[in-house]
Amino acid sequence: MHIEECIVSAPGKAILHGEHAVVHGKVALAVSLNLRTYLWLKASSTGKVCINLPNIDTFLCWDLSDLKQLIPDSFANRKEGKCLNAELVRRLREFVGVTNGNLDTRTMATLAFLYIYLSLFGTKDLPSLTVSVWSELPTGAGLGSSAAFSVCLAAGLLSASGAIPAPLKEWDDTARWCQEDMELINSWAFQGEMIIHGNPSGVDNAVGTWGGILRFLSGKIIPLNRVPLLRILLTNTKVPRSTKVLVAGVKDKINKFPSIMNPVLDSVNAISCTCEKILSEMTSEPITGEHYNVLEELIDINQHHLNVMGVGHPTLDTICRITLARGLHSKLTGAGGGGCAITLLRPETDCLVAQSTIRDLKDCGFDCWETSIGGPGVQQHSPLSVREEVLEMLKHY
User: CA distances (Å), 55 to each of 115, 207, 238, in order?
Assistant: First the structure.
Protein backbone atom coordinates (compact mmCIF):
# COMPACT_ATOMS: atom_id res chain seq x y z
CA MET A 1 0.00 0.00 0.00
CA HIS A 2 1.09 3.55 -0.66
CA ILE A 3 0.10 4.81 2.80
CA GLU A 4 0.11 3.12 6.20
CA GLU A 5 -2.95 4.96 7.46
CA CYS A 6 -5.21 7.91 6.74
CA ILE A 7 -8.27 9.65 8.12
CA VAL A 8 -10.77 11.22 5.71
CA SER A 9 -14.21 12.79 6.11
CA ALA A 10 -17.10 13.85 3.88
CA PRO A 11 -20.20 15.94 4.62
CA GLY A 12 -23.87 15.07 4.42
CA LYS A 13 -26.32 16.81 2.11
CA ALA A 14 -29.50 18.83 2.38
CA ILE A 15 -31.70 20.41 -0.29
CA LEU A 16 -31.95 24.15 0.28
CA HIS A 17 -34.54 24.82 -2.43
CA GLY A 18 -36.07 22.98 -5.38
CA GLU A 19 -37.00 19.55 -3.99
CA HIS A 20 -39.76 17.89 -6.09
CA ALA A 21 -39.61 20.73 -8.66
CA VAL A 22 -36.21 19.37 -9.78
CA VAL A 23 -37.96 16.17 -10.96
CA HIS A 24 -39.89 18.36 -13.41
CA GLY A 25 -36.91 20.16 -14.95
CA LYS A 26 -36.51 23.00 -12.45
CA VAL A 27 -33.40 24.21 -10.59
CA ALA A 28 -32.54 22.75 -7.17
CA LEU A 29 -29.82 23.88 -4.77
CA ALA A 30 -28.11 21.09 -2.83
CA VAL A 31 -25.85 22.07 0.09
CA SER A 32 -23.20 20.34 2.15
CA LEU A 33 -24.24 19.65 5.73
CA ASN A 34 -21.51 19.85 8.33
CA LEU A 35 -22.53 16.62 9.98
CA ARG A 36 -19.74 14.45 8.66
CA THR A 37 -18.80 10.83 8.08
CA TYR A 38 -15.24 9.89 9.12
CA LEU A 39 -13.16 6.98 7.84
CA TRP A 40 -9.91 5.65 9.30
CA LEU A 41 -7.92 3.29 7.07
CA LYS A 42 -4.95 1.42 8.52
CA ALA A 43 -2.62 -1.15 6.95
CA SER A 44 -2.27 -4.44 8.84
CA SER A 45 -0.35 -7.71 8.61
CA THR A 46 -3.18 -10.08 9.56
CA GLY A 47 -3.83 -11.44 6.06
CA LYS A 48 -7.38 -10.10 6.41
CA VAL A 49 -9.54 -7.18 5.30
CA CYS A 50 -11.78 -5.83 8.04
CA ILE A 51 -14.52 -3.21 8.07
CA ASN A 52 -16.06 -1.71 11.21
CA LEU A 53 -19.32 0.24 10.96
CA PRO A 54 -20.41 0.86 14.57
CA ASN A 55 -23.35 3.10 13.56
CA ILE A 56 -25.06 0.08 12.03
CA ASP A 57 -23.52 -2.55 14.31
CA THR A 58 -21.50 -4.19 11.52
CA PHE A 59 -18.02 -5.69 12.12
CA LEU A 60 -16.71 -7.99 9.40
CA CYS A 61 -13.40 -9.61 8.38
CA TRP A 62 -12.46 -11.69 5.35
CA ASP A 63 -9.34 -13.68 4.44
CA LEU A 64 -7.48 -12.21 1.48
CA SER A 65 -7.41 -15.67 -0.15
CA ASP A 66 -11.23 -15.81 -0.14
CA LEU A 67 -11.56 -12.34 -1.64
CA LYS A 68 -8.97 -13.04 -4.35
CA GLN A 69 -11.19 -15.83 -5.71
CA LEU A 70 -14.02 -13.35 -6.33
CA ILE A 71 -12.09 -11.38 -8.95
CA PRO A 72 -13.29 -12.26 -12.48
CA ASP A 73 -10.62 -13.73 -14.80
CA SER A 74 -11.10 -10.95 -17.35
CA PHE A 75 -10.98 -8.25 -14.70
CA ALA A 76 -8.66 -5.35 -15.55
CA ASN A 77 -7.36 -3.15 -12.79
CA ARG A 78 -9.20 0.11 -13.34
CA LYS A 79 -8.25 3.51 -12.01
CA GLU A 80 -11.42 5.20 -13.21
CA GLY A 81 -14.93 4.50 -12.01
CA LYS A 82 -17.14 4.73 -15.07
CA CYS A 83 -19.60 1.85 -14.93
CA LEU A 84 -20.12 -1.15 -12.69
CA ASN A 85 -18.49 -4.48 -13.51
CA ALA A 86 -21.61 -6.65 -13.62
CA GLU A 87 -19.74 -9.94 -13.06
CA LEU A 88 -17.95 -8.65 -9.96
CA VAL A 89 -21.25 -7.29 -8.59
CA ARG A 90 -22.91 -10.68 -9.17
CA ARG A 91 -20.10 -12.56 -7.40
CA LEU A 92 -20.08 -10.16 -4.47
CA ARG A 93 -23.84 -10.37 -4.02
CA GLU A 94 -23.56 -14.14 -3.91
CA PHE A 95 -20.57 -13.92 -1.53
CA VAL A 96 -22.33 -11.74 1.04
CA GLY A 97 -25.61 -13.63 0.69
CA VAL A 98 -27.76 -11.04 -1.08
CA THR A 99 -31.15 -12.30 -2.10
CA ASN A 100 -33.81 -10.12 -3.72
CA GLY A 101 -35.33 -9.27 -0.36
CA ASN A 102 -32.04 -8.70 1.48
CA LEU A 103 -31.18 -5.10 0.61
CA ASP A 104 -30.65 -3.80 4.14
CA THR A 105 -28.22 -1.00 5.00
CA ARG A 106 -25.53 -3.33 6.38
CA THR A 107 -25.47 -5.51 3.27
CA MET A 108 -25.39 -2.58 0.86
CA ALA A 109 -22.58 -0.84 2.77
CA THR A 110 -20.57 -4.08 2.78
CA LEU A 111 -21.10 -4.57 -0.96
CA ALA A 112 -20.00 -1.00 -1.75
CA PHE A 113 -16.82 -1.40 0.31
CA LEU A 114 -15.85 -4.77 -1.20
CA TYR A 115 -16.62 -3.60 -4.72
CA ILE A 116 -14.40 -0.48 -4.54
CA TYR A 117 -11.63 -2.35 -2.67
CA LEU A 118 -11.47 -5.22 -5.18
CA SER A 119 -11.82 -2.88 -8.18
CA LEU A 120 -8.85 -0.77 -7.10
CA PHE A 121 -6.55 -3.56 -5.88
CA GLY A 122 -7.90 -6.50 -7.91
CA THR A 123 -4.97 -7.36 -10.19
CA LYS A 124 -2.26 -6.75 -7.60
CA ASP A 125 -1.60 -8.47 -4.31
CA LEU A 126 -4.57 -7.57 -2.15
CA PRO A 127 -3.41 -5.50 0.84
CA SER A 128 -4.34 -6.43 4.38
CA LEU A 129 -6.12 -3.47 5.98
CA THR A 130 -8.77 -2.32 8.44
CA VAL A 131 -11.35 0.36 7.64
CA SER A 132 -13.45 1.93 10.41
CA VAL A 133 -16.25 4.40 9.68
CA TRP A 134 -18.16 6.59 12.11
CA SER A 135 -20.90 9.02 11.06
CA GLU A 136 -22.64 11.96 12.68
CA LEU A 137 -25.44 11.52 10.11
CA PRO A 138 -28.59 9.52 10.78
CA THR A 139 -29.20 6.81 8.17
CA GLY A 140 -32.32 6.77 6.00
CA ALA A 141 -33.18 10.43 6.68
CA GLY A 142 -32.45 11.76 3.18
CA LEU A 143 -29.26 13.49 4.37
CA GLY A 144 -26.79 11.77 2.06
CA SER A 145 -25.36 9.32 4.62
CA SER A 146 -24.71 6.60 2.03
CA ALA A 147 -23.02 9.08 -0.32
CA ALA A 148 -20.78 10.44 2.45
CA PHE A 149 -19.83 6.80 3.19
CA SER A 150 -19.10 6.13 -0.51
CA VAL A 151 -17.04 9.33 -0.86
CA CYS A 152 -14.95 8.40 2.20
CA LEU A 153 -14.41 4.87 0.85
CA ALA A 154 -13.36 6.20 -2.55
CA ALA A 155 -10.97 8.81 -1.11
CA GLY A 156 -9.39 6.42 1.39
CA LEU A 157 -8.99 3.44 -0.94
CA LEU A 158 -7.81 5.53 -3.93
CA SER A 159 -5.13 7.07 -1.68
CA ALA A 160 -4.12 3.67 -0.33
CA SER A 161 -3.86 2.24 -3.86
CA GLY A 162 -1.69 5.12 -5.07
CA ALA A 163 -4.23 6.17 -7.70
CA ILE A 164 -4.25 9.63 -6.07
CA PRO A 165 -1.70 11.16 -3.69
CA ALA A 166 -2.58 11.79 -0.06
CA PRO A 167 -2.70 15.63 0.09
CA LEU A 168 -1.94 16.06 3.81
CA LYS A 169 1.48 17.54 4.56
CA GLU A 170 3.25 17.12 7.89
CA TRP A 171 2.24 20.59 9.11
CA ASP A 172 -1.41 20.45 7.92
CA ASP A 173 -4.50 19.89 10.05
CA THR A 174 -6.69 19.17 7.02
CA ALA A 175 -6.06 19.08 3.28
CA ARG A 176 -8.09 18.65 0.09
CA TRP A 177 -7.27 17.02 -3.22
CA CYS A 178 -6.84 18.81 -6.54
CA GLN A 179 -9.75 19.09 -8.99
CA GLU A 180 -8.63 16.11 -11.10
CA ASP A 181 -8.28 13.83 -8.06
CA MET A 182 -11.66 14.97 -6.72
CA GLU A 183 -13.28 14.04 -10.02
CA LEU A 184 -11.81 10.54 -9.64
CA ILE A 185 -13.06 10.33 -6.04
CA ASN A 186 -16.52 11.45 -7.20
CA SER A 187 -16.67 8.87 -10.02
CA TRP A 188 -15.82 5.99 -7.65
CA ALA A 189 -18.21 7.31 -5.01
CA PHE A 190 -20.92 7.30 -7.67
CA GLN A 191 -20.21 3.60 -8.24
CA GLY A 192 -20.67 3.02 -4.51
CA GLU A 193 -23.99 4.87 -4.74
CA MET A 194 -25.02 2.71 -7.71
CA ILE A 195 -24.33 -0.41 -5.64
CA ILE A 196 -26.43 0.95 -2.76
CA HIS A 197 -29.27 2.72 -4.61
CA GLY A 198 -29.33 1.30 -8.15
CA ASN A 199 -30.03 4.53 -10.06
CA PRO A 200 -28.78 7.56 -8.08
CA SER A 201 -28.90 11.14 -9.42
CA GLY A 202 -25.26 11.79 -8.58
CA VAL A 203 -26.14 14.89 -6.51
CA ASP A 204 -25.42 13.37 -3.09
CA ASN A 205 -21.92 12.09 -3.94
CA ALA A 206 -21.11 15.36 -5.75
CA VAL A 207 -22.02 17.34 -2.61
CA GLY A 208 -19.96 14.92 -0.49
CA THR A 209 -16.98 15.40 -2.81
CA TRP A 210 -17.02 19.14 -3.52
CA GLY A 211 -19.01 20.47 -0.57
CA GLY A 212 -20.38 24.01 -0.68
CA ILE A 213 -23.55 24.50 -2.73
CA LEU A 214 -24.37 22.78 -6.02
CA ARG A 215 -26.87 23.81 -8.67
CA PHE A 216 -28.73 20.83 -10.11
CA LEU A 217 -30.79 21.12 -13.31
CA SER A 218 -31.85 18.35 -15.70
CA GLY A 219 -29.02 16.03 -14.68
CA LYS A 220 -26.30 18.72 -14.82
CA ILE A 221 -24.50 19.44 -11.55
CA ILE A 222 -22.60 22.74 -11.24
CA PRO A 223 -20.73 23.68 -8.03
CA LEU A 224 -21.13 27.37 -7.13
CA ASN A 225 -17.74 29.03 -6.98
CA ARG A 226 -17.84 30.73 -3.60
CA VAL A 227 -20.56 30.36 -1.00
CA PRO A 228 -21.13 31.70 2.51
CA LEU A 229 -21.24 29.37 5.51
CA LEU A 230 -24.76 29.51 6.97
CA ARG A 231 -25.73 28.47 10.51
CA ILE A 232 -28.80 26.22 10.69
CA LEU A 233 -30.77 23.93 12.92
CA LEU A 234 -31.41 20.53 11.37
CA THR A 235 -34.43 18.68 12.76
CA ASN A 236 -35.31 15.04 12.07
CA THR A 237 -39.00 14.34 12.69
CA LYS A 238 -38.19 10.60 12.57
CA VAL A 239 -41.43 10.13 10.62
CA PRO A 240 -40.74 7.48 7.95
CA ARG A 241 -41.86 8.19 4.41
CA SER A 242 -41.56 6.83 0.90
CA THR A 243 -39.87 9.22 -1.53
CA LYS A 244 -41.33 7.25 -4.44
CA VAL A 245 -44.90 7.67 -3.14
CA LEU A 246 -44.43 11.41 -2.48
CA VAL A 247 -42.90 12.04 -5.93
CA ALA A 248 -45.79 10.12 -7.57
CA GLY A 249 -48.31 12.19 -5.57
CA VAL A 250 -46.83 15.46 -6.83
CA LYS A 251 -46.89 14.16 -10.40
CA ASP A 252 -50.56 13.17 -10.06
CA LYS A 253 -51.43 16.65 -8.78
CA ILE A 254 -49.59 18.30 -11.70
CA ASN A 255 -51.45 16.07 -14.18
CA LYS A 256 -54.79 16.80 -12.51
CA PHE A 257 -54.31 20.58 -12.14
CA PRO A 258 -51.67 21.62 -14.69
CA SER A 259 -52.76 25.27 -14.89
CA ILE A 260 -52.50 25.54 -11.08
CA MET A 261 -49.42 23.43 -10.37
CA ASN A 262 -47.11 24.46 -13.23
CA PRO A 263 -46.95 28.07 -11.97
CA VAL A 264 -46.07 26.67 -8.53
CA LEU A 265 -43.12 24.79 -10.08
CA ASP A 266 -42.08 27.95 -11.95
CA SER A 267 -42.20 29.87 -8.68
CA VAL A 268 -40.01 27.27 -6.92
CA ASN A 269 -37.55 27.56 -9.80
CA ALA A 270 -37.48 31.35 -9.33
CA ILE A 271 -36.91 30.85 -5.58
CA SER A 272 -33.84 28.67 -6.28
CA CYS A 273 -32.45 31.19 -8.77
CA THR A 274 -33.10 34.15 -6.44
CA CYS A 275 -31.46 32.30 -3.56
CA GLU A 276 -28.44 31.53 -5.73
CA LYS A 277 -28.14 35.25 -6.60
CA ILE A 278 -28.34 36.30 -2.92
CA LEU A 279 -25.74 33.72 -1.84
CA SER A 280 -23.42 34.96 -4.59
CA GLU A 281 -23.87 38.56 -3.38
CA MET A 282 -23.04 37.47 0.17
CA THR A 283 -19.56 36.39 -0.94
CA SER A 284 -18.78 39.48 -3.03
CA GLU A 285 -20.04 42.29 -0.79
CA PRO A 286 -20.57 42.90 2.95
CA ILE A 287 -23.32 40.66 4.36
CA THR A 288 -26.30 42.67 5.57
CA GLY A 289 -29.48 41.98 7.49
CA GLU A 290 -31.38 42.42 4.22
CA HIS A 291 -29.61 39.40 2.74
CA TYR A 292 -30.94 37.32 5.62
CA ASN A 293 -34.42 38.90 5.32
CA VAL A 294 -34.62 37.69 1.72
CA LEU A 295 -33.30 34.19 2.58
CA GLU A 296 -35.97 33.91 5.32
CA GLU A 297 -38.78 35.02 3.01
CA LEU A 298 -37.68 32.52 0.35
CA ILE A 299 -37.74 29.75 2.98
CA ASP A 300 -41.31 30.71 4.01
CA ILE A 301 -42.59 30.93 0.43
CA ASN A 302 -41.01 27.61 -0.56
CA GLN A 303 -42.46 25.83 2.48
CA HIS A 304 -45.95 27.04 1.52
CA HIS A 305 -45.38 25.81 -2.05
CA LEU A 306 -44.32 22.38 -0.76
CA ASN A 307 -47.52 22.19 1.26
CA VAL A 308 -49.46 23.06 -1.91
CA MET A 309 -47.67 20.16 -3.64
CA GLY A 310 -48.97 17.86 -0.91
CA VAL A 311 -45.63 16.89 0.67
CA GLY A 312 -46.07 18.62 4.01
CA HIS A 313 -46.80 16.86 7.31
CA PRO A 314 -48.17 17.90 10.73
CA THR A 315 -44.74 17.36 12.31
CA LEU A 316 -43.19 19.77 9.80
CA ASP A 317 -45.94 22.32 10.59
CA THR A 318 -45.03 21.94 14.27
CA ILE A 319 -41.36 22.69 13.54
CA CYS A 320 -42.33 25.80 11.55
CA ARG A 321 -44.62 26.99 14.35
CA ILE A 322 -42.10 26.42 17.19
CA THR A 323 -39.24 28.11 15.35
CA LEU A 324 -41.35 31.05 14.11
CA ALA A 325 -42.35 31.75 17.72
CA ARG A 326 -38.66 32.59 18.24
CA GLY A 327 -38.36 34.59 15.03
CA LEU A 328 -36.75 31.73 13.07
CA HIS A 329 -37.77 30.44 9.65
CA SER A 330 -37.96 26.76 8.62
CA LYS A 331 -38.78 24.52 5.68
CA LEU A 332 -38.70 20.82 4.95
CA THR A 333 -35.64 19.51 3.15
CA GLY A 334 -35.78 16.50 0.84
CA ALA A 335 -38.86 14.44 0.07
CA GLY A 336 -41.08 15.80 2.85
CA GLY A 337 -44.00 13.85 4.33
CA GLY A 338 -42.02 13.88 7.60
CA GLY A 339 -38.27 13.47 7.23
CA CYS A 340 -36.14 16.52 8.02
CA ALA A 341 -36.41 20.31 8.20
CA ILE A 342 -33.84 23.10 8.20
CA THR A 343 -34.09 26.34 10.18
CA LEU A 344 -31.94 29.36 9.25
CA LEU A 345 -30.00 31.03 12.07
CA ARG A 346 -28.77 34.59 11.59
CA PRO A 347 -25.20 35.44 12.62
CA GLU A 348 -26.61 37.47 15.52
CA THR A 349 -28.99 34.72 16.70
CA ASP A 350 -28.08 34.20 20.35
CA CYS A 351 -26.82 30.77 21.42
CA LEU A 352 -29.46 30.71 24.18
CA VAL A 353 -32.22 31.18 21.57
CA ALA A 354 -30.80 28.31 19.50
CA GLN A 355 -30.43 26.07 22.56
CA SER A 356 -33.95 26.74 23.86
CA THR A 357 -35.38 26.11 20.35
CA ILE A 358 -33.49 22.80 20.18
CA ARG A 359 -34.86 21.86 23.60
CA ASP A 360 -38.46 22.64 22.51
CA LEU A 361 -38.04 20.57 19.34
CA LYS A 362 -36.53 17.65 21.26
CA ASP A 363 -39.47 17.83 23.69
CA CYS A 364 -41.69 17.05 20.67
CA GLY A 365 -39.75 13.81 20.17
CA PHE A 366 -37.59 15.12 17.31
CA ASP A 367 -33.80 14.90 16.94
CA CYS A 368 -32.21 18.32 16.48
CA TRP A 369 -28.67 19.58 15.83
CA GLU A 370 -27.11 23.00 15.39
CA THR A 371 -24.77 22.78 12.42
CA SER A 372 -23.88 24.66 9.23
CA ILE A 373 -24.33 24.37 5.48
CA GLY A 374 -21.93 25.27 2.69
CA GLY A 375 -18.77 23.83 4.30
CA PRO A 376 -15.95 21.83 2.70
CA GLY A 377 -16.35 18.53 0.88
CA VAL A 378 -14.12 15.49 1.26
CA GLN A 379 -10.86 16.13 3.08
CA GLN A 380 -7.97 14.33 4.74
CA HIS A 381 -7.31 14.97 8.43
CA SER A 382 -4.43 14.81 10.82
CA PRO A 383 -5.53 12.98 14.01
CA LEU A 384 -5.22 16.25 15.95
CA SER A 385 -7.87 17.92 13.76
CA VAL A 386 -10.51 15.27 14.54
CA ARG A 387 -12.70 15.66 17.62
CA GLU A 388 -11.60 13.35 20.43
CA GLU A 389 -14.91 11.46 20.66
CA VAL A 390 -14.86 10.75 16.89
CA LEU A 391 -11.24 9.57 17.06
CA GLU A 392 -12.10 7.27 19.96
CA MET A 393 -14.93 5.69 17.98
CA LEU A 394 -12.67 5.14 14.94
CA LYS A 395 -9.77 3.65 16.88
CA HIS A 396 -11.85 1.59 19.26
CA TYR A 397 -12.27 -1.26 16.79
Answer: 21, 22, 17
